[in-house]
Amino acid sequence: MIDDTKKLGLNDTVLFENSKYKDTKLLLEDIKGASSYSKFVNKNKSSLIDDNIKKALGEIIFARNLEIQEFADKVGISKAFAYQILNGSRRPTRDKLIVIGLKLFVTIDELNNLLLSAGKKRLYAKNKRDAAVIYAITHNITLQKLNKLLKDEGIETFK
To answer: Is residue 140 a contact partner of residue 106, using CB atoms and an 8 Å limit?
Structure first.
């Protein structure tokens, strides 16, 4: 398990502050050496992706003690869209999930979990735009200030 707080980027994986995730290489080693699939899963639960956006987003909403309408207002979406995301009938884009995360001041791990639960790629520190998002999260920068930073660097902003 990688626990360095400043390591960003290892092979195709991004590791984060206090991350519970093992990188792909370590997971592959565990799979190869596992005596059974269930033992592998039990050993690596925190590193495996649960493709359930309802659960991941619900945990974020619950942790912030928000009602659905409060959540929708805070992140700038309709209550209907919020319900559609939570019931699985609509899948937001990666950008929309990042905006939701930024507006709720999530941690990097929470945002990556949210992205993965929706079948999207984790934040990748070698990508300039993703690096700016990581910077914004770790420095408590608002979406508006992040968009100014991105615009100043000639990088696509978030809507």
So the answer is: no
Amino acid identity at 11? N
* C-beta of residue 27 within 8 angstroms of C-beta of residue 15: no
Whole-number Å distance between alpha carbons of 91 and 119: 9
pTM of the predicted protein model: 0.71
Domains of the chain: 1-48 (no CATH), 51-152 (1.10.260.40)
86 touches 56 (CB < 8 A): no
Residues 13-40 have pLDDT tens digits of 343 444 456 778 888 998 899 999 988 8
Query: Which residues make Cβ contacts (< 8 Å) with residue 158, sequence separation at least 6?
Result: 95, 98, 99, 102, 143, 146, 147, 150
Torsion of CA 141, 142, 144, 146, to 10 degrees: 30
CB 99 within 8 A of CB 155: no
Here the tokens at position 115 are 């992205």
Chain segment 72-86, per-residue pLDDT in tens: 999 999 999 999 998
